């Protein structure tokens, strides 16, 4: 099996003590490639170093909307410079989060538009974070067209999903799919065209049901695949091949 975790924060400090063991178990589980998104400028150097040292890890660089207080003047300019110098796989994790308490929507939107423009100029896909703001992000994507990407941890409507697909995006499904109570999400994963779906863990967050309350890990990606196979009544091997092909296509992975 050849699986791609399209969204995993493997650079997070929670993996510092056992990262090598996690990667070894990923290999045994068939998780061959992992996309590691950046969230703040201060973390980019460590993320790039990690991906440079480990085969099968692919960096993305971005400024996350939930960390506005950590972003500094000049970070967007630095992002453009890092993109030109290091040629990451994608721009991300970027987006909008209106779920948090008292979100600064104007500042979030300004940051999103600036990063979309960088992605447009660099012709790179984007990894989108979105909570309670799908229509606003879709509007931004129409105004600043980019070469597709992934709507990470997608939880919007079927109509919104098809709008993302029309714009060249794939939709990421992960640990929440393993919970039977996630009825809306499981229904969505069943109804969407398989060609639109990619797998992710978002580790160390959003863990699978069998590890509820524990740190999530990319080695659990096969459990996300199994949940997808269950809700679609499909063969895991076939779904693995297609979701991997989807990820390769949208991210330009050979």
What does this structure look like?
The protein has helices at residues 19-29, 44-53, 75-86, 105-122, 134-143, 158-166, 183-191, 221-232, 236-251, and strands at residues 3-5, 31-37, 57-61, 90-97, 126-131, 149-151, 169-173, 197-199. With 254 residues, it is an alpha/beta fold. It has a single domain (3-251), classed as Metal-dependent hydrolases (TIM Barrel, Alpha-Beta Barrel). The chain has an 8-stranded parallel sheet. Strand 2 (31-37), helix 2 (44-53) and strand 3 form a beta-alpha-beta unit. The protein is globular and about 45 Å long. The protein starts with a strand and ends with a helix.
For this entry, give a set of tags.
TIM Barrel, 16% strand, 8 strands, eight-stranded parallel β-sheet, globular, 9 helices, 254 residues, alpha/beta
User: Helices and strands, in N-to-C order?
Assistant: EHEHEHEHEHEHEHEHH
Radius of gyration: 17 Å
| Amino- and carboxy-terminal Cα gap | 16 Å
CATH topological fold name: TIM Barrel
List the domain count as a whole number.
Answer: 1
| Annotated CATH architecture | Alpha-Beta Barrel
Number of helices: 9
Annotate the secondary structure layout.
Elements: E1 3-5, H1 19-29, E2 31-37, H2 44-53, E3 57-61, H3 75-86, E4 90-97, H4 105-122, E5 126-131, H5 134-143, E6 149-151, H6 158-166, E7 169-173, H7 183-191, E8 197-199, H8 221-232, H9 236-251
Parallel strand pairs: 1-2, 2-3, 3-4, 4-5, 5-6, 6-7, 7-8
